[in-house]
Amino acid sequence: MKKLIGYLRLMRPANIVTAVSDILAGAAIAGFAVVGEQPSSSQYLYWLVLSTVGLYGGGVVFNDVFDAALDRVERPERPIPSGLISGTEAALLGSILLLAGIAAAFMFSPLSGAIAMAIAVAALVYDKWGKHHSFLGPVNMGLCRGLDLLLGMSLVPEVIAQFGFLAVAPILYIAAITMISRGEVHGGKSNTMLAAGGLYGVVILAIVTWSIANHAYYALVFLVLLIILIFPPLVRAYRAPIGPNIGKAVKAGVLALIIMNAAWAAATGAILLAIIIALLLPVSIAMAKLFAVT
């Protein structure tokens, strides 16, 4: 049982729930659950959900595999440095998850499979090299989420060519969180929090613009909730950029990703799907109480 819990800790279950919300938001943009525009392929959406579960789980497992030496110093309680899970066992788990994620995407379509492969590559590049670069690291991590949104949009392939640019928003959002997280252990700088807040603002403005363009003003309700979730802990981290405050800002940003995705769905006109996405938040919060988010 301890070993099983160790494997789950490596996979970050609370974060995987947020990845599922990426797929649902992408599906909303593709027309799923929008009256009169529901794509016939929506009944197979579960393949894309399964894909993101495998891809995200595999990506974070490899993050711990590559960070094992550092974690022995900074986070010795984690599964690999504590000796609960060996590096080989973790690498095997990560490989199985990534391959399963890619296979599930190919079960839906070749395009989805190609996007899944790109996500897997982007995740491994970040885990091994990207995280060590102050600029490319956040962009690299954001790219994983942007591609995940495109994976959801691949429900209707033609939509990607038309609205694929919307994937820039999650790239900026996750880049902000990644910037903040660099000070999670030893503390950070107030200017970093300020820059992250600016990126959050750009994403919020983009959703507002999209909701106005689609006359879907109820998206503003989700945006208010998003602001309430992400900015108070970020302000506290700005005022006192110490490890614990930064950790809370990172956790809030990760969990609030669900509400950001709900806002995108609502801004597209898929209000019912937006509510379903938002209901994933308490699930993710409950899991975050059992398993670490960062």
Topology:
Elements: H1 2-11, H2 13-29, H3 45-66, H4 68-74, H5 87-108, H6 110-128, H7 136-153, H8 157-163, H9 168-181, H10 190-213, H11 219-239, H12 243-268, H13 271-278, H14 280-290
Helix pairs in contact: 2-3, 2-7, 2-12, 2-13, 2-14, 3-5, 3-6, 5-6, 6-7, 7-9, 9-10, 9-12, 10-11, 10-12, 11-12, 12-13, 12-14
Descriptive notes:
By secondary structure, this protein is mostly helical. The chain has one domain (2-290). 77% of the residues lie in helices and 0% in strands. It has helices at residues 2-11, 13-29, 45-66, 68-74, 87-108, 110-128, 136-153, 157-163, 168-181, 190-213, 219-239, 243-268, 271-278, 280-290. The longest helix has 26 residues, at 243-268. The model has no long low-confidence stretch (mean pLDDT 91).
Q: What percentage of residues falls in helices of 4 or more residues? A: over 70%
Q: Work out the radius of gyration.
A: 18 Å
Average pLDDT metric: 91
Q: Main β-sheet, in a few words?
A: none
Count of extended strands? 0
| Domains (count) | 1
Derived structural class: mainly alpha
Distance between the termini: 22 Å
Tally the helices: what do you get?
Answer: 14
Order of helices and strands: HHHHHHHHHHHHHH
* Stretches with pLDDT under 50, minimum 5 residues: none
Share in β-strands = under 5%
**Overall body shape:** globular
GO cellular component, one term: membrane
Protein name: UbiA-like protein EboC
Membrane topology: Multi-pass membrane protein
Subcellular location: Membrane
